[in-house]
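Sequence dictates fold. Next comes a concrete instance:
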Amino acid sequence: MSRVVVVNGPNLNLLGKREPEIYGTRTLQDLESTVRAKARSLGIDVDFFQSNSEGELIEYLQVHAPGTLGIVINPAALSHYSLALYDCLQALALPVVEVHISNIHAREEFRSRSVTARAARGVIAGLGFAGYEMALEYLAKQ
């Protein structure tokens, strides 16, 4: 069966508690359930990973992403400055879809720039958990 890795960056473990007016009240576990259900409906497996550490995210991607259909990633704050994560995504040479739960372009100015987005085929922002489902649909068709 085909596989996709879904990677979430810093502070996404606080979903449901952190700024619910922006991120909603659903938790990371709710997100994982949503993603796994969508993956099942598409006939693909999904590996789900979250870390607050840039290095752990990079190591996870280097080990687990090769041989997959692609990567769904929400780099969170790392999207705005992590050249190391960008380099990792570029080096893996896989289809990448960057996802943001909130609309990063409607928030603080510093959030509207994503250095990691240059390594992605597309970016989905502001559609909540549905953005992850759309990313899976895209990768399943590759």
